[in-house]
Structure formats: C-alpha cells, structure tokens
Amino acid sequence: MWYNQNMLNTIHDPILRQREGAEAAVVFIHGFMGSPNQFSAWMDAAYQAGYSVAAVLLPGHGGDAKAFAKATCEDWQAHVRAELNALAAKHERICLVGHSMGGLLALRASLEPASHVAGVFAVCTPLKVRLIGIKKIRLLLHPEVSAAYRQANSVSGLGLFSLMRPWLELRKLIRRTKAVLPQVWVPVCLVHSGGDETTSPVSAKLLWDGLSNAPRQALTLTASRHAFFDPRESEQIKERLLAFLHALKQA
Prior knowledge:
Layout: E1 15-17, E2 24-29, H1 40-48, E3 52-55, H2 65-70, H3 73-88, E4 93-99, H4 101-109, E5 117-123, H5 134-140, H6 143-152, H7 160-180, E6 188-193, H8 202-210, E7 216-221, H9 231-250
Parallel strand pairs: 2-3, 2-4, 4-5, 5-6, 6-7
Antiparallel strand pairs: 1-3
Helix pairs in contact: 1-9, 3-4, 4-7
C-alpha cells in the first residue's frame, strides 16, 4: 500500500515517513493530475515537528492518460479511506492536508468515524472551477509558475478526450462534497489564493458558509496561484499548518 520513500527519490510515488512514537500523522492528498512531490517543504516541517507524514498517490495518477481516464471519484475516495485505515492502526489522530481536489477528498474523509481524522487543512479547494482562459495561458508562460506546474503534474500524454471522464468525476465529487459540508465538525483551515486561476474565489465563501458546524479559520494569499506558491506565502502556509497541528494536539 505504501512505499518507504526518501524525499529526494523518484517523484510521483507515495511517501511515508514514520516517526517513532508519534501519536499523530499528517496525510497529504494531492489534487486533480497532482503529485505527492508537491508537499515536500510542508511535509518536512511536519516531520521535524514530531509527526509521521505521508502523501498518497491517487488512482490514475503517476502514469499515463489512459490510466487516468479510467479512475473515478469513488476510486479516489476509497484509496484515501484505505490509507487512513492503515495509519489509524498506529496513530491516535490524523490531520489531512489536501490541495485542490485533495481538499474535497479530505473533507469527505473526515466524516468517517474510523478514520481518526482530527482536522482538515484545505488549500485552494474548489467548489466552483474556472475554465481555461487567457490568464491561465499567460501564467503558464511564466518560468517559475510553469516549473511548479510541471512538478505538480503526474499524468503524461494528456489530451482533451482523456480529460473528459476525469473532469466529470471531479464535478461529481464537488457536488457530493458541497452537499455534506454541514456534517463536517472537525476543525478546518481554509487556504485560498486571490490569484488562483483554477479555483474560483467564490469557492472561499461557499466553503466557509457550508462548513457552518465546523470550527474554521482562513488564510488568504495574494501572490500565489493554484499550484504555484510564492516562497514567502509558502512559509506562511507552513507556519499556519504547524500552528493548526499544535491546536489539534491541545484540543
């Protein structure tokens, strides 16, 4: 299920770094076409703070477009569930960190009592998605942004046809997550970027209002994008994540 993995080894593999005696684990869930390697700096910070850390590789990811086109939102959610069940056997509580679609999967996973989820840290999570436009094309021409997006993409050989079914599965996951937001009760931290070219800014309000029964907090970025984080703001995310983990420990 998991691969023991040094952070410098081959990309697009699931990662597990167990810390001896750790009561809690932090699980990172990538988004649509994403990769575990997106989280290296945040994972290192959590590990150094005394937590076991893991990053999943969702079904259909880490390979070619043909495999990606076969994956469903049920496959993605079941995979997260299986990994959490494995970690729950060794850890009293688990915090989920989800980027984009990973935030949707994390929020839904928090509803399963056997998962031991104590909190969700959701980054650029979409309830409304922006379609591709001139702003996104211009961003991809920026060297730093395009490098970050290449690092974050784990699916090769993508074309319009191979994206159609996964896109519909993502839309289905968005609808299902939106419907259950009032059932989430664990603490949630919502991180949004004002410059996000993929997740509509409307998502921030929809999530905040929908999570009416969850203790929630928000962090708004100004210089980051959807999968590119300004170095200073990445540090802010790391600091907020560590504070969030500390608060969960004290609860």
